[in-house]
Amino acid sequence: MTAFDPWDPAFVADPYPAYAELRAEGRVQHYEPTGQWLVSHHADVSALLRDKRLGRTYQHRFTHEDFGRTAPPAEHEPFHVLNDHGMLDLEPPDHTRIRRLVSKAFTPRTVERLRPYVHGLAAELVSGLVEAGGGDLLSDVAEPLPVAVIAEMLGIPESDRAPLRPWSADICGMYELNPSQETAAQAVRASVEFTEYLRELIEVRRKEPGEDLISGLIAAYDEGDRLTEQEMISTCVLLLNAGHEATVNATVNGWWALFRHPDQLAALRADRSLVPTVVEELMRYDTPLQLFERWVLDDIEIDGTTIPRGSEIAMLFGSANHDPAVFDAPDKLDLARRDNPHISFSAGIHYCIGAPLARIELAASLGALLDRAPTLHLAAEPERKPNFVIRGLRSLNVAV
Predict the structure, then answer these.
(1) pTM score of the predicted model
(2) Which of 102, 206, 309, 372 has the fewest beta carbons under 10 Å from its own?
């Protein structure tokens, strides 16, 4: 267990050797610093994501006291109100109802309609990078693309988009292990500001509906049921946070991996038909979301170890995606890999609703960089963020 240390910069830089040690030690280990049970094997993670004895929340069945947990501090309430009304942190029947309603607005047609916008914006951003002779791939391409796409889909005017990324970053800080008081205060402030903004925008869309997703969420109904205003607000924030955090990190983690494997990058440049499998392999090889948590609602047993109700399980997506029981030569970047059942988009009822859009965005930016920056190369060694759960780089400086 000494190898697993999510606060150690060396571990965060390359957690995969430690994951191999965890898998060798067994199927489940208790990690005292966070009080969580670590699950590292692909088969277990995949099964537990579908196990109804686990939940993203427990409040649909238990009070905090009944579950042996302490209620969050009162000053954190704005964050938890926002977070706890989103699909990702709900269980049936609330999750089922909200996902059904959201799916009526977030349709394949809605996503497909964005494809020309995504490709056009990717080309525009990459052209700017090329004209400048290079720059920070993260801030110049990877970040603005998915943020603009989600904002466009939601119908957020361009003049209002500047705070979206900072709000998202501050809110997502709470998903790290044992967040600090400062992180919590920033998340609360961002939750209040983002909620107030969306409340006003929803009111505008009620009076003047358009073709955007917010208008679709307002109009969505099923058997007389509609989303509450808080559910709409939480859905919009979730779509922004989940819809770009993973895409940003997958983009820069992916290009950093390509630069470290010049033979694979050369093969990709020689054969663009690889792009669909490349997107999947980059998502697997350096997983943007490393850890996903679930509460144990009823006692479960893993490999002879009983994990009691009230416990928290930490499913290690990055480890599962490098499990040699599932992936041939898992530590090898193989852009032609066909058999690739990675779980970077989760599984079960919480499978990422935005996965099709994320794939379009990743393929669009990858294609634009291959087309318009054929000699793209690393200009400086990148620095990693200290975050482990949502894992990525501070910057990725490149030249053309």
Answers:
(1) 0.94
(2) 206
